[in-house]
Amino acid sequence: MSIFVDENTKVVYQGLTGSQGRFYGLRNRDYGTQVVAGTNPKKAGEDVDGIPVYATVADAVAATGATASCIFIPAPGVKSAVMEAAEGGVKFIVVITEGVPAQDEAWFYNKVTDDFPDVRILGPNCPGIISPGKANIGITSGDIALAPQPGKPAVGIVSRSGTLTYQALYELKLQGIGVTTCVGIGGDPVPGTSFIDCLEAFEADDDTKAVMMIGEIGGSAEEQAAEFIAGKMTKPVSSYVAGVTAPPGKKMGHAGAIVSGGKGTAAAKMDALRAAGVKVGQNPTEAGELMVEIVESL
Amino acid sequence: MDLFEYQGKQFFGSFGIAVSPGEVADTVDDAVAAADRLGYPVVVKAQVQVGGRGKAGGVKLAADTDEARTHAGDILGLDIKGHVVKRLWIEKASDIAEEYYASFTLDRAAKKHLGMLSAQGGVEIETVAESDPDAIAKIWIDPAKGLDDATLRDWVTAAKLNPQATEGAVELLGKLYTAFVDGDADLCEVNPLILTPEGRVHALDAKVTLDDNARFRHDWDEYEATQTRDEREEAAHAKGLQYVGLDGEVGVIANGAGLAMSTVDIVNQVGGSPANFLDIGGGANAEVMAGALEVINNDPKVKAIFINIFGGITKGEEVANGIVTALGRVQIDSPIVIRLDGTNAEQGREILSRHESETLISRPTMLDAARTVVELAKR
Fold it and tell me: Are residues B44 and B133 in the same domain?
C-alpha cells in the first residue's frame, strides 16, 4: 500500500499550459501517473500532448473523474486556484508553487478545512508526493525512488525540505530499501499537511514498516511530531533536522526556516525526537544509515 | 522585512490606527526644526531595529529647542548594540495614564492567527509571559472567518484593561487586525499601547514585520530602500540567489534550502566554519553556478569553497558541465571541493575528473567533501 496517492489517483494539473506545468505534468505522466486533465480558462478544448485542457477544475472533474489536483500557478493566483480545486470536487490538492503569501496560505488552509473537511492540501512550496511505482505528483525525479521490494520491508519518508527528500530517497535506493510513499510537506509557515498527518497515515499503512522524517529549523512541527511518535506510533522512526548551526533571526531559504527568540532550534528538535525514541542522525547520510539498521533489525 | 518604528507608524497610520504625530529627521538641524513644528515637549527617538534602545540612551524627552538640539546630537551616531543611529523620529510627547501590550501574529502550530493583549505593557512581553502568564489575554482567530466585534469585545474584557479604555481599544485593535491581514504582516505589535488621561487610546510604538512573499501586491519601495543588508547579501540578492552571510572561511554553494543548511551544518561538524549559506535553487546550470561563484569569490574571508549538489531533475552530467563552464567564466582564487550525487552522479564525476587538480577536487560523499574543504581552508 501507499498513503494519499496510488495508481488509481487521477490528477488534473492547474497550470498545465505553462512551461513548468507542462514539463512536470508530462514527466509525471511518463512515470505512470494518471494525468487526466489540465486547466486554463482561456484554453479550454485544447490539449497538451494529448492531455485535454478544461476551463475549470469542476469541468475537468466532470469530464475525467479527477480526484487530485497539482498546482503550478504563480504565487499571486494560488489562493483562488486552491479554492477552485476544492470547490471543483478534488480531494487532494498538491501546491508546488513557492513564494505564496503567509496570509493567503493561512486563509485557504482554514477555509478548506472549514468548508471541505475531507479535502487535503499538500504544500505550498513543496516537491510533491511520490508513491514509487504507482504515482508521482510534483517535481521529484522518479528515477531516484525505489518501489517496495518483494520480501523486504519498505519505509515511508516525510520531509520539510526538497533536496534533502531526494537525498533520502536516493540513499535508500542505493541500500536497496523500497519506499511506500515519500511526502514533501514543504517549508512554508502553514503547510496543508503536517508531519503528524503523514506519521498517522504511515502508522496505519500495513506495508510501511518504518518512517524516515526530515525536519528543519523554525516553528514547532518537529516537537509536535515527537510527541505524536512517543504517544501513538509503534513503527520505528529515523530522523535528521537541518540547520543545527543556523544563526538566529535569519531565514534560511524557506519562509518557515527561521530561529526566532531562541525557539525552533535544531538542537531542541533533535532532543525532542531522541526523547521520543527516534534515531537521530547528525547529517542526512547518517539518518539513512540509521534507517538501514532499523530495516535490518525488522 | 522588519520596519523601523517610524515606518511602522506610517503603516499603522495608513490603516487609520491612532499614532502620535511625528517627523523623521536625519540631521540635528532637521530634528530641531521638526520639534519646533510639532510643539514641545517632544520625544527624540533613535530609529534602529534592535530592542533596548531606551536603556542605551536612544530615547530622550526634550522640553525645548535647546534640549531637542542636545538630544538629537547625542543620539545621532550612537552605537546601540552594533546598530549606528542614522535616523531619528521626533514625536510629540504623550501624557500616559496606563500602558498596555497588543499584538497579532500567526500561530504556526495552531495554523490560526494569534492575538495577544495585556494590561501590563511597556515591558517585554516575554517577561510578562514568564512572570504572570495569566496577565496575557490570548485569542485564536480563524483566518478564513476573521475577527468579529463580539469576540473583540470579549477579548478586551478578558484583558482587564481600564474600563475607560474599552471603546478605544476595541476600535484600535479592530484596525490593527485589518492592518495585520490586509497589510500582509507577519507581526504587528504595539508596546506600549497607551491610555491617555483624557481617555484616548493610541499606539506609542510600532513593531511591524512584513511578509516578503506579498511584495507583489503592495508598494513597499520606501521600506525596501532603508533595509540594511550585508554587502555580500546585496550582491547575491541582485542575482536572485538565496544568501545568508556568516563569519567563517568556507564558502558554501548548494542546491535547495535544506541541503544548503545541511552543508553549513556538516562544515561546522567537522571543525570548519562556513562563510555563508547559499541556495542556488533546484537546478544547477552554468549561469546560476557562475553567479554563485562570483558572489563567494568576492568574499575576502573565503579560503576554500564547497559545492554540494544533489542532481535530481538536473542530471549529474549537466551539473558537472555547468560547473566546468562556470569555472571557465569566473576566475576563482580559492580551492574548490565538489560533492556531486544523485541522478547520473557517476557520469558527472567522470566529467569533473577530467578537470581535477590541486584546486578542483571531487569527493563522493558530503562527509568526505566537508573534511577535505575544511582542511584546505585551514592551510
Answer: no
CA distance B47 to B34: 15
Where exactly are the structural domains of chain A?
10-122, 141-297
Question: Which backbone phi and psi does B51 adopt, to 5 degrees?
Answer: -75, 165
Task: Give the DSSP H/E element, type plus range, for residue B185.
Answer: strand B185-195
Check pLDDT > 80 for residue B283. no
CB contact under 8 A, B262 and A242: yes
**pLDDT at residue A171, as a whole number:** 86
Range of the domain at B246: 231-378
B7 belongs to a structural domain = no
Residues of chain B with C-beta less than 8 angstroms from the C-beta of A103: 143, 181, 184, 211, 214
Q: Does B255 touch chain A (CB under 8 A)?
A: yes
If you average pLDDT over every residue of chain B, what do you get? Answer: 92
Q: Is the residue at B8 inside a domain?
A: no
Please tell me the predicted confidence (pLDDT) of residue B331. 86
Give how many domains chain B has, as a whole number: 3
- Is B264's Cβ below 8 Å from some Cβ in A? yes
Q: How far is CA A195 from CA A136, A199, B258, B348, in A?
A: 19, 6, 16, 34
Q: Touching check for A162 and chain B: CB below 8 Å?
A: yes
Contact A255 B213 (CB under 8 A): yes
Q: How many angstroms away from the CA of A70 is the closest CA of chain B?
A: 18
Q: Do B256 and A254 touch (CB under 8 A)?
A: no
- What pTM was estimated for this model as a whole? 0.92
CATH of the domain at B363: 3.40.50.261
**Same domain flag for B239 and B207:** no
Q: Which of the following is catalytic: B6, B100, B101, B223?
A: B101
Å between A45 CA and nearest CA of chain B: 30
B111/A190 CB distance under 8 A: yes
Rounded distance between C-alpha atoms, residue B118 and residue B303, angstroms = 51
The residue out of B224, B244, B265 marking a domain boundary is: B224
Across the interface, of A101, A111, A216, the residue whose CB is closest to B213 is A101
Q: Does any CB of chain B come closer than 8 Å to the CB of residue A2?
A: no
CA-nearest residue of chain B to A127? Answer: B282
pLDDT at A23 over 80: yes
Asked if A162 and B277 come within 8 Å (Cβ–Cβ), the reply is: no
* Same domain as B253, residue B357: yes
Task: Note whether A26 and A11 are within 8 A (CB).
Answer: no
Final residue before a domain boundary, out of B192, B224, B256 = B224
User: What type of residue sits at position A279?
Assistant: K
- What pLDDT, in 10s, does the model give residues A156-210? 999 998 888 888 898 899 889 999 999 999 989 999 999 999 999 999 999 999 9
Task: Say whether residue A243 is in contact with chain B using an 8 A CB cutoff.
Answer: yes
User: Which residues are CB-neighbours of A13 under 8 A, at least 6 positions away?
Assistant: A21, A24, A25, A35, A37, A38, A39, A51, A69, A70, A72
- CATH of A10-122, picked from 3.30.420.280, 3.40.630.40, 3.40.50.720, 3.40.220.10, is 3.40.50.720
- Complex ipTM value: 0.92
What is the least distance, in Å, from the CA of B62 to any CA of chain A? 33
CB atoms within 10 A of CB A50: 8
Is B118 inside any structural domain?
yes
Q: What is the CATH number assigned to the segment(s) A141-297?
A: 3.40.50.261
